[in-house]
Amino acid sequence: IIDAYLNYNTASHNNINFNIESNNLSIYDNMTTDLLLVIMNLMNNAIENIGVPKKASAFFALKDNQFIIKVENTCYSNPLINKMKTSKSDKKNHGYGIEIIKDIVDKYNGSYFTKYQNNIFTTYITLNIGENYIIWYNILDNIDLGGKNDTSRK
């Protein structure tokens, strides 16, 4: 299901330069719905807020009892300034994606971290599926955890 969504989404937005890397995300069937909700919300947000050049990348992997998700996109302005609130006029029916993601992160005792730097918006998420895990987003990127434009949730 996740692969089908990613394939459909990238084909539907052929004006965006996508780079997607993943391993087998369907290995834990009981998490498929939650993973799909996280990935859909992150990818939709990236597409809706993409800057120029229109570039987005995503990394999805299962490693050491942890799902690791990293999504990056070019972005015109810092979404953290408005606390990532929806810019859509119909606020009653939009703007729930980040809260859905945070609820799922909490459900799996995971981590949620965002940063905006050099017109690139990046989201890192980990979802834990066991007792033995390590925090991989520090390895994925040399990130400054103390930056004023960063948000985190652990």
Number of strands: 6
Taking all residues together, what is the mean pLDDT?
A: 79
Low-confidence stretches: 142-154
List the total number of helices.
4
String of helices and strands: HEHEEHEEHE
Structural class: alpha+beta
Largest sheet: 6 strands, mixed
Q: What global shape is seen?
A: globular
Rg value: 15 Å
Tell me roughly what share of residues is in helical segments.
Answer: 25-40%
Strand line-up across the major sheet: 1-2-3-5-4-6
How big a fraction of the residues is strand? 25-35%
In angstroms, what separates the terminal alpha carbons?
Answer: 28 Å
Please give a structural write-up:
By secondary structure, this protein is an alpha+beta fold. The chain has helices spanning 2-12, 32-48, 97-107, 137-140; strands at 17-22, 55-63, 66-74, 111-117, 120-128, 151-153. The relative contact order is 0.18. The model is unreliable at 142-154 (pLDDT under 50).
Short descriptors:
single chain, 154 residues, alpha+beta, six-stranded mixed β-sheet, 4 helices, disordered C terminus
Write the layout of secondary structure elements.
Elements: H1 2-12, E1 17-22, H2 32-48, E2 55-63, E3 66-74, H3 97-107, E4 111-117, E5 120-128, H4 137-140, E6 151-153
Parallel strand pairs: 1-2
Antiparallel strand pairs: 2-3, 3-5, 4-5, 4-6
Helix pairs in contact: 1-2, 2-3
